[in-house]
Specification:
alpha/beta, elongated, 4 strands
């Protein structure tokens, strides 16, 4: 598996916004490469605690290695952050001082081609953040109805030509299953008008984003989790 260089998004702004107390308890809901987590951990004393969530085995391995270079004052939990309350209760944490979400696909998930997140690298249509779950992008592309595909592409990708792309996918999969990112990318490109193809912006970007969001149920999980986090910070419940 390829190595990757993780670049945290808005690192300074994030740390400033958390206003970290040395003895506080903080949760990184999306650890990834631990770029943000490292900076939180550096600011905690022996009475503070960092709890990190991630579903991805590779992220957990790499993130844990990075955090161990700083201190052992952290806990890594393999779980989706929607399960935050139950998981924190298991380790005796009833109130937290702050939480961080870095939503979307991680840089390493794009860089490691076999994960199927990138339309630039040919791989199986996967896009699962938790590789133990059943639903893959392959299943959506090959088995969802035309109307469902249109809705997904428009709602989560804001793709103007969702109907044309969905129609082309349905036509092509009737001939043979669409199995790889390259196949899907080429189908998407062939479905849109010529002026879109000439624009230099690949329409697959929006479609891949939409598929990733649905595969991982990202928005529903985020909405549920933020309500939990706010309650945990303000009320300790």
């Amino acid at each position: 598996m390829e190595e990757y260089n993780h670049i945290p998004v808005l690192l300074n702004e994030t740390i400033e916004g958390l206003n970290i107390k040395p003895d506080g308890i903080y949760v990184d809901c999306t650890m990834g490469g631990a770029g943000h987590s490292k900076e939180i951990l550096k600011r905690l004393n022996a009475n503070g605690k960092l709890v990190c969530f991630d579903q991805d085995d590779y992220a957990i391995k790499r993130g844990t290695e990075n955090l161990q270079k700083i201190s052992d004052n952290f806990i890594v939990i393999k779980s989706n952050f929607v399960n935050l309350i139950n998981e924190l209760q298991k380790i005796g944490i009833n109130k937290i001082d702050g939480a961080l979400y870095d939503l979307g696909v991680s840089s390493y998930q794009l860089d490691i081609g076999e994960r199927g997140f990138s339309y630039h690298i040919n791989a199986d249509l996967d896009m699962r953040m938790d590789t133990n779950q059943y639903l893959k992008a392959y299943d959506i592309v090959n088995f969802y109805e035309y109307d469902e595909l249109c809705k997904i592409f428009y709602k989560y990708g804001e793709e103007k030509y969702s109907n044309l792309i969905a129609k082309k996918i349905v036509k092509e999969r009737a001939i043979k299953p669409i199995e790889t990112t390259q196949e899907l990318s080429e189908i998407i490109l062939s479905a849109v008008p010529n002026h879109v193809r000439r624009s230099g912006k690949h329409p697959a970007k929006k479609i891949f984003q939409a598929l990733r969001i649905v595969v991982n149920d990202e928005l529903n999980i985020f909405e549920k989790s933020t309500l939990v986090i706010l309650n945990k910070i303000t009320n300790g419940k």
